Amino acid sequence: MSTFKAGLEDIVALRSEICFIDGQKRQLVYRGYDISELVGKATFEEVVYLLWNGQLPAAAELERFKEQLAAEAALPEQLVDFLKASPKDAEPMAVLRTAVSALGLFDPDTSVQDREANRRKAARLLAKVPVIVAYNGRLREGKDPVPPKPELGLAANFLYMLHGREPGRMDAEVFDAALILHADHELNASTFTARVVTSTLSDVYSAVTAAIGALKGPLHGGANEQVMRTLLAIGEADRVDEWLEAALERKERIMGFGHRVYKTGDPRADYLRRFSQQLGEKRGETKWYEMSRRLEQLMYEKKGLYPNVDFYSASTYYMLGIPMELFTPIFAFSRVSGWTAHILEQLDDNRLIRPRAEYVGPRDQTFVPVDQR
Ligand code: CMC
Question: To test ligand 1's pocket by mutation, which of 212, 224, 257 has the most ligand atoms within 8 angstroms of CB?
Answer without folding.
Answer: 257
